[in-house]
Design brief:
12 helices; 261 residues; ABC transporter involved in vitamin B12 uptake, BtuC; mainly alpha
Length: 261
Amino acid sequence: MLSYTFVQHALLEIVLLSVGLGLLTILVNLRDLGVLGTGIGHAAFTGGVLGVLLGAPWLWTIATGLFVALLSSKIEGKRVSSANSVIVAFTFILALGLILSYFVPGQISTVMGLLFGSMLGVDVFDIVLTSVATLLLVIFFVKYYWEILSTSFDEEYSAVVGIPVKPLRLFISVLLAFYITVTIRAVGTLMMEALLVIPGAVALQLTDSYHKSWKISMALIAASGVISLIMAFYWNLPVSPLMVVILSLSFLIARFLFNQE
């Protein structure tokens, strides 16, 4: 199995995703960013469609994801909640992508690939992009760890003690958008939202320590990824949906057997 190059690429991608998504999933749960992650993921679908039509798919995917993250932050205000601002931004982009997909040659296979990902289809360039995005995330978390935790729990207090709350919130949204969009080919737009939420939800059921929760979420993503990769190789199944099934079952077990409440 490991003698195949495409399996080696997929395994390396899973290891990188376990670090990057392992960091993001706790942040998504603490800051209630699930809707934003969903919106960016769906926007990446449109970017992928534009990339198929115009070339440079990775560039269009990143551009549309960042566009939704920035547009939703501009729309948000006193009369528009953050969740609703994301919905306004991403439904427009998603609808545009669905319309454009009708002009794509081999429409069904292309759309299915964008929606559900192809972990076994990642190449060296995908791995390089994921490596860069993961490295940026690690540097950001190491440098601003306490600021991230502080603003996640109490933005008003954080602002009083001098933490730049709004710039930090915007930077987190941009990093989230960048990471989602560069890994969307492997994970898929529909599966991304689950991988952003479920591992963190499981980890937070198992421990009250946020230090441990990040480690647990990384281990969960890595374990589910390796198991799914083995199943996909021998039974010709898609990796990302298998990961979501395994993580969902893990959440149910953690919720009813190890609940910290």
